[in-house]
Amino acid sequence: MMKLDDLNNASTADFVRLLDGIYEHSPWIAERAAAARPFKTLAALKVALARVVREAAVDEQLGLIHAHPELAGKAAVAGELTAESTHEQHKAGLTACTPEEFARLQQLNADYNARFGWPFILAVRGPRGTGFTRQEIITTFERRLRAHPDVERAECLRQIHRIAEIRLNDKFGARPELGEQLWDWAAALAEHSEDEAFLTCTYATPTHSAVAAELMAWMRDCGFDAVGRDAVGNVVGVYNGTGEQRLLTGSHYDTVRRAGRFDGRLGIFVAMLAVRELHRTGRRLPFGLEVVGFSEEEGQRFPADFLGSSALIGRFDPAWLEQLDAAGITLRDAMRAAGLPGTLQSIQALQRDASRYLGFVEVHIEQGPVLDGLDLPLGIVTSINGSRRYTGEIVGLASHAGTTPMGQRRDAAAGVAELILFAEQRAAAVPDVVATVGMLEVPSGSINVIPGRCRFSLDLRATTDAARDALDADVLARLDEICQRRGLSYTLQPTLAANAAPSDAAWQSRWEAAVTELGLPVHRLPSGAGHDAMKLHELVPQAMLFVRGGNGGISHNPLESVTVDDAELAVRAFEQLLDQQ
């Protein structure tokens, strides 16, 4: 097995020779990466190699893509692949295709090459490392065939890096066992779903209770000293330390509809694995670990969200108990049906005493494309964006599309369209500020009628409250101006106002030190999504670590993905964080 010292102490020529086959027929990658030595960890080597490719010219990147063979293509049939590619295609079962599968792959290869001009690249051993099925490969092929060429070129390079990562693991005899366990827990938990086709786990449903029971069983197996489900449905595991104070950590286990496996749950698993490793070695920290699987964060079944974390900070609104779901069931009755007390007194008793806690840390999948685009497995969150949300309606006059002159129209949809473009331009002018109109509807619209009404949503976010409020003021002022100029009226209903949650400086520094200890570069970024950490921020210091998501960083989607190698690094970073206390 190769060792890092072999590479760090080798001449450049020997360095390139030792890494032969990691990147298909492209020795220039290793040659340029050699200048970044010494590498502290295998992860550092992987990042350095990926950086060389990211900084290469487009022609060089395309040359790397062209160096790879087609899946089940002519070279495979003729036995002309490299040993590494032969092994990977064989392991994925591509050498055992049915005639129908082989014909489909041949057609997809032809269509793909005609569209993009390069071979389709997929790390067929996948994020788990055990391989995609042939049907999964074909489905991925079909999906990516519809991508924009620039997006697809970037995805091919990311797949090449994953291929290289797996080959390096083989060469170094490295196995991400903690990451594999995390991945397998996520897959097993995803078997509990309200929807047979897609993962869905909403608050206080039988599925939700089954997930809680599974988490509690695994926590007991990991060696937690106390495990239970509290009055709001949070799963809480405590691993005692030698001191009285505790570090609070965790994330949520409910999901959106048609969800991915890692949003929220990854942060619970990371902490569980850290406790399991502590328990296996009989080690106690100077502080206790309290791991919370928050029962509700997504706001999918009831209008309120952050039910789980709101209870811990003493901000559970009594009015929430009377809220209704789509079936007319109150939150109180849903709680009782799930075996929870459903009383305000029991929920209020969950409030934590801030003096007993060192802080709150959360590990979370990024839910965005930044880390994936930079080929970085981990990122440090600087702040969770503050936000304001609205639902609104512009009202004009429905009239005939053919007979009403352009200068005499009161088009409600055109008014909203103008607002959308202004919000986009205004947000783009300031770093880390975003604006989105995610819902748009013309009620009873017709192809030959000028829209008289247009409903819309508005989501405004920024890393600071001041930047958020400035965006809010400008967008609302423009809405008023648009309507006055166009002869329209409007209504606007606020639905959410959340303050920004800057990361605590000391805890952010500890995350940065943990990432540095793994040999990885420190990349700081804000979180545009809301998290339980932004609620705990109101009680104790908080800071977050992001983990790269695959497939362009997509989340809240079945394509949400994390590799076992990145999951392993997340656990190791969490362990490093614990060792700093």
From TrEMBL:
One MF annotation (Gene Ontology) recorded for this entry: 2-oxo-4-hydroxy-4-carboxy-5-ureidoimidazoline decarboxylase activity
Cofactors, names only: Mn(2+)
UniProt cross-references to InterPro entries, sorted A to Z: Amidase_Cbmase (IPR010158), Bact_exopeptidase_dim_dom (IPR036264), OHCU_decarboxylase (IPR018020), OHCU_decarboxylase-1 (IPR017580), OHCU_decarboxylase_sf (IPR036778), Peptidase_M20 (IPR002933)
GO biological process per UniProt: allantoin metabolic process; purine nucleobase metabolic process
Enzyme class: lyase
Keyword Cell membrane part of the UniProt annotation: no
Domain spans labelled Oxo-4-hydroxy-4-carboxy-5-ureidoimidazoline decarboxylase: 8-169
Gene3D superfamilies: 3.30.70.360, Oxo-4-hydroxy-4-carboxy-5-ureidoimidazoline decarboxylase, Zn peptidases
EC number annotated for this UniProt entry: 4.1.1.97
This protein's record includes keyword Manganese: yes
Alphabetized UniProt keyword annotations: Hydrolase, Lyase, Manganese, Metal-binding, Purine metabolism
Family: Belongs to the peptidase M20 family.
Complexes and interactors: Homodimer.
Name used for this protein in its record: 2-oxo-4-hydroxy-4-carboxy-5-ureidoimidazoline decarboxylase
Gene: uraD
